[in-house]
């Protein structure tokens, strides 16, 4: 298991797709922060906010996240390198390793938005959230940024990245079934928006709201600038459990599947 995880992490570190995705996320986060500054200073009309949303974290991560999950899990099936991994480690360790690697990749492409929020807050400038997402609210927070504030901002950013990974974790079993990175990307992108609509509909009833609260799709799981340590730990626990559940589902689907 450890050897397989090290191998998968090595592949990700030297992956062109991973490098390009991080660079794209960095550029989008910087532009998103700048445009929010322009909105706050009056340099952009409020009607332009819809255009700003095109480089928001929710859109960029919903695109890059499923792509990276598909590449981490499904690409080895295309290159046939999965056969060597299965012979060396077995199906359980391979599924667990690739689920963790894929989740870490999603977290990594979300962190540039946290870094952009930190830099923006450090400048002391005013920002106007184009969308009420965690990173936008962190950037626009007016609380003075001291050492404790930096630690809290970093913690919220990491937990938000983990939450994104959990929301996209449904792509993990899909990747083992579909075995096509582009198909996984398209399906995951659609799912990232459909899931929120489904949860909001289910949450209209008390039982549905209780069930939704146990998933990363609940509005209560969204980290905020003023989230307490307990809230962050709860979101972390829910996200980790959901990712583990999707990994277990992937193993159940893959354990008897033919590998060509």
TrEMBL record:
<feature type="transmembrane region" description="Helical">
    <location>
        <begin position="182"/>
        <end position="199"/>
    </location>
</feature>
<keyword id="KW-0812">Transmembrane</keyword>
<feature type="transmembrane region" description="Helical">
    <location>
        <begin position="95"/>
        <end position="119"/>
    </location>
</feature>
<feature type="transmembrane region" description="Helical">
    <location>
        <begin position="232"/>
        <end position="254"/>
    </location>
</feature>
<keyword id="KW-1133">Transmembrane helix</keyword>
<feature type="transmembrane region" description="Helical">
    <location>
        <begin position="16"/>
        <end position="35"/>
    </location>
</feature>
<feature type="transmembrane region" description="Helical">
    <location>
        <begin position="55"/>
        <end position="74"/>
    </location>
</feature>
<protein>
    <recommendedName>
        <fullName>ABC transporter permease</fullName>
    </recommendedName>
</protein>
<keyword id="KW-0472">Membrane</keyword>
<feature type="transmembrane region" description="Helical">
    <location>
        <begin position="150"/>
        <end position="170"/>
    </location>
</feature>
């Amino acid at each position: 298991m450890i050897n397989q995880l090290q191998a998968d992490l090595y592949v990700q570190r030297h992956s062109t797709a991973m490098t390009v995705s991080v660079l794209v996320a960095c550029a989008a986060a910087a532009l998103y922060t700048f445009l929010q500054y322009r909105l706050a200073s009056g340099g952009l009309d409020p009607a332009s906010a819809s255009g700003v949303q095109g480089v928001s974290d929710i859109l960029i991560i919903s695109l890059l996240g499923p792509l990276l999950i598909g590449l981490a899990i499904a690409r080895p099936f295309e290159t046939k390198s999965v056969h060597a991994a299965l012979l060396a480690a077995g199906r359980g360790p391979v599924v667990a390793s690739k689920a963790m690697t894929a989740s870490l990749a999603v977290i990594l492409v979300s962190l540039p938005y946290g870094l952009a929020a930190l830099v923006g807050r450090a400048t002391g400038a005013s920002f106007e959230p184009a969308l009420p997402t965690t990173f936008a609210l962190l950037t626009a927070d007016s609380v003075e940024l001291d050492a404790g504030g930096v630690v809290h901002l970093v913690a919220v950013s990491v937990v938000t990245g983990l939450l994104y990974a959990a929301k996209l974790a449904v792509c993990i079993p899909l990747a083992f079934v579909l075995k096509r990175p582009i198909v996984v990307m398209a399906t995951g992108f659609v799912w990232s928006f459909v899931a929120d609509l489904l949860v909001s509909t289910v949450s209209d009833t008390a039982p549905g709201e209780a069930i939704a609260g146990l998933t990363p799709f609940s509005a209560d799981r969204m980290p905020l600038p003023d989230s307490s340590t307990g809230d962050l730990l709860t979101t972390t626990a829910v996200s980790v459990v959901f990712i583990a559940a999707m990994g277990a589902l992937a193993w159940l689907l893959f354990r008897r599947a033919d590998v060509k």
